[in-house]
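Table 4 source record.
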Amino acid sequence: MPLFPAFLDLSGGTVLVVGEGHEADSKAEKMALFCENILRCPYPPRYEALPALVILAEKDHPENEAWAAHFREKGVTVNVADRPELCDFIFPSVIVRGDVSLGIATAGKAPALSAMLRKRIEAALPEDLEAITAIAAELTMELRKTIPDPHERGKAIRQRLEKLF
């Protein structure tokens, strides 16, 4: 079954990345796009305040399952490298251009396919997507004042944005 794509606001939270090496570095680097407060530590995990997300980033670490259960019992969302069955979320292939972010996932079953699709989609996006987003935001605010019906407003916004592509 496909996973529901959810976009989380992590701006006020902490992400704990547990582990050392390339996988931990990669996960921390990806999370830095979305969260300013990233804590890194080796096993066993160390933290003062409960994080918003935990990433157990060492593949096949013998304590991954126990630590995933520990954090999950405390209500923390958990990701375990290369163990989708232990994850509350998976890392999609991500495209970020300003405030636009797209995630591509295969339910953790084929990450190479997600990466390939990301490259193809990224190549198809306009280079000035960040500027288009700013225009769309201004247009949305402007039309909220003059077109009260959300369906009509959406139609008007889409018609104007089509001209930018």
